[in-house]
Specification:
single chain, Nucleotidyltransferase, domain 5, 2 domains, alpha/beta, 8-stranded mixed β-sheet, 15 helices, Rossmann fold, 7-stranded mixed β-sheet
Length: 426
């Protein structure tokens, strides 16, 4: 054990920091710790606290943190681990850097490294200067649609270890769809090397009364969503709105060079409970293909932050069609530099009319658009209390789906007689 500067050390009571519900998770030493949980189930917070605690306790250990898309790590896992270090009152023992994105134990040189599956070479070539790479945390594992990608990560955690260390892969995710490979791999298959847990907000004693009220209202008003987002049960998805889609890597520049290809951008506003969602797509009207190549998906954004993010992404000069329900926001964003933003026109039955047009296209989704993938895999037709399908989609998993409809408004012309394909001049 390394001797740290005790003058800077502040004692903490770990049970008070971690709270209840994760004792087995913390004690388990098998290869796979898998936690599916509802929102606010503190699964990610607990994984971060446990990693910070253990990397200080075992001075020969190093860790790797992975998400499907690298750019999502800074504002999620990296920020969560910084929070955990502050919560454990040991922030001063680490060096946090953003370029490269990594966390270093100052006294020992141990590393917590960050990688994205969008750069597989960097994942397979991970190496540490001292000690051993023994722990892997995969956050939002639901985003990883290919089991082969997980196998690649699994194979990277190997080799001889000191007797007091162990190889372990921690997997945390929200269980949106029971068809995901994670269910069969870890929850249907039993092994002493697998700890598969389900947690929910009820084990999170740190929630405020207003937090709990959100779930109680969800339980009353949207019991289907409550089973997944509230209780952490597997989502059962039937009757998807869009079925003609695939996840595929493609070159945006090459697609853009084709004849009959246009770019389209749509914005759906959100704030506290719902994210602000920006859809970025290319449409090949001759081939009847929609290429989804980028997205913005964040909660709590002010108009200034929306403008800042869209500008940083390089789309400030694009024509963006936004939800007409917020005209003040559209005017404000125009003043903030998004000069070509305009309100999408909503008419009677505009949702179904837009869906009908989009269903005629094949949708190709770049793997970096993880939130679009999650939504399209769960965006389904609503049903009544008897389970009969209704002619309207669910009011859920629809932020990027709505943004896509706004963006593609030029292709959706509303007329009394039905829907026609729009022209290049909208």
């Amino acid at each position: 054990m390394i001797s740290y500067d005790t003058a800077k050390y502040q004692p903490v009571r770990l049970p008070e920091i971690f709270g209840k519900g994760y004792g087995q998770f913390i004690r388990f030493r098998g290869r796979y710790r898998v936690v599916k949980g509802s929102r606010a189930s503190k699964k990610s917070a607990t994984a971060a606290l446990d990693l910070i605690k253990n990397i200080l306790k075992y001075p020969e250990a190093n860790a790797l943190v992975v998400r499907k898309v690298f750019r999502t790590l800074k504002d999620s896992c990296f920020a969560q681990l910084k929070w955990a270090a502050r919560r454990l009152k040991c922030y001063h023992l680490f060096r946090f850097t953003e370029s490269p994105l990594e966390i270093t134990v100052i006294a020992t040189g141990q590393k917590i490294l960050f990688r994205g599956l969008d750069d597989p070479l960097k994942v397979t070539s991970v190496a540490v200067d001292s000690g051993a790479l023994c722990w892997l945390w995969i956050e939002e594992a639901y985003e990883i649609s290919s089991e082969a990608d997980f196998d690649m990560l699994n194979e990277s955690i190997r080799g001889q270890l000191p007797h007091n260390l162990w190889h372990q892969i921690t997997i945390t995710f929200n269980p949106w769809n029971e068809r995901h490979w994670l269910k069969k791999r870890f929850f249907d298959y039993k092994s002493e090397d697998i700890l598969a847990m389900t947690t929910n907000y009820l084990c999170n004693e740190f929630l405020s009364p207003s937090d709990l009220k959100v779930f109680e209202e969800m339980k009353l008003n949207n019991p289907k969503r409550y089973k997944v987002a509230g209780l952490g049960d597997w989502g059962i998805v039937e009757g998807l709105v869009y079925e003609n889609w695939e996840e595929r890597i493609f070159d945006v520049a090459e697609i853009s060079k084709r004849n009959n290809v246009q770019s389209f951008f749509g914005l759906d506003f959100g704030f506290t409970n719902d994210p602000t969602a920006l859809f970025c797509g290319l449409v090949d009207t001759a081939a009847k293909e929609i290429y989804v190549f980028d997205e913005l998906y964040k909660k709590g954004l002010t108009n200034d932050e929306i403008a800042e993010d869209i500008t940083r992404m390089g789309y400030a000069k694009e024509k963006i069609r936004a939800d007409s329900a917020e005209p003040k926001s559209i005017v404000h964003l125009r003043r903030l530099g998004l000069r070509r933003i305009k309100a999408a026109l909503k008419g009677k039955d505009s949702i179904n009319a837009g869906i009908q047009v989009i269903q005629d296209y094949k949708i190709i989704i770049h793997p970096c658009c993880v939130n679009f993938l999650t939504e399209i895999m769960n965006y389904s037709w609503d049903e009544d209390k008897f389970g009969k399908k209704l002619n309207k989609p669910i009011d859920d998993f629809n932020h990027l789906m709505d943004a896509m409809r706004y963006a593609l408004e030029p292709l959706i012309k509303m007329r009394k007689g039905g829907v026609t394909i729009g022209t290049r001049d909208d």
